[in-house]
Amino acid sequence: MSRRKENVSPEKWNDWNWQVENQIRTVEDLEEFLNLTDEQREEIKEVTKTYAWETTPYYASLMDPDDPNCPIRKQALPSKEELYDPVGVQDPLKESEHQPVKGIVRVYPDRVAFTISNKCAMLCRHCFRKEYVNMPHTFVSHEDVMNAVQWIKETPEIRDVLLTGGDPFLNDTEWLEEIIAPIREIKHVEVIRIGSRTPCTMPQRITPELVNMLKKYHPLWVNVHFNHPKEVTEDAKRACGMLADAGIPLGNQCVLMKGINDDAKTQMELVHKLVEMRVRPYYLLQCQILHGTAHFRTPIETGIDIIYNLQGWTSGFCIPTFLLDTPYGKCPMFPQRIVNRDTYSVSLKNFKGQIWTEPNPMPGYDYPKQK
Ligand code: SF4
User: Fold this and answer.
1) Which pTM was predicted?
2) Which pLDDT score is estimated for 346?
3) Ligand 1: centre distance to CA 121 (Å)
4) Residue ranges matching CATH 3.20.20.70 in the chain
5) CATH classification of 95-332 is 3.40.50.720, yes or no?
6) Given a cut of 80, is residue 106 above it in pLDDT?
7) I want to staple 286 with a disulfide (CB 3.0 to 4.6 A). Which of 65, 118, 324, 349 is the partner?
């Protein structure tokens, strides 16, 4: 049975359930989309013994059939480099140490991440929950969810709940509403956020039924996850447009990865495409010391330099915050613009390298006399 768009009816192709039911998990299925060499076939099969993979027909349709360095392929398909990672660990954020109740991760006083699905449209090679996503033993039961909702209800400091997974949008709309509605009723929960990669990897999931349900529960925000401009397709634009039209603010979390998006030109193109579809670039995340990802990691300087090279050359709201997520919380890292500083002045370098010195109006500063 073919999974290529041109061989499938539009009704099936645009049905997210069809995309999930027809996820690609074998080299044989993949060969409908790509021209693989014997070596590439063997490589995928070999790595699959250690790390699972799967993707949607939609995401596979974005892959370059001949180029192994295609950024879409690199995010979705196993590579032998995953097997050589001397320092990567399974749980770099030590999430298991921050769980007051099953399904809740609490690192900050006022907000929590709440895992409501173990399913994703694809298994991203850089995923820091790769031991969790689409694994039978991590199934999230109705009881797990309701216990966690009760915990939020009994914890008045929590004002912001991030629904995560896996991918929350892999739940059907009815079940998703059964989770969101009681959270919305909790007086101290001011904001509900949802993190989903489906607008990128399976935009068919964003249906009128879904957005009509979500917009009943404002203030509700959605964070999406695009890593490369090639992912910003007409389908992705339609999906993000539907969410934005429902009054949902959208932010993007991008993971910085060597050979995929570790240069200012690619990031510039990505942020411009995101903003065009009403998605605010929110975070650029340093790749974690996560097992199987050594080949993606870049020096910290790479991310800082990218932000430096975006500043001034594009609008401020196009520029994400570069940060490292740690077991102690997220730590932003900024390029240095201050070239000199004393008590009463600060000198700054602008995007063209010009230096400007500004008085620093500390108490006791003696302003020059007005003429
Ligand atoms: S969509 Fe997110 S949670 Fe799911 S596999 Fe990709 S990175 Fe992991």
Assistant:
1) 0.96
2) 96
3) 8
4) 95-332
5) no
6) yes
7) 324
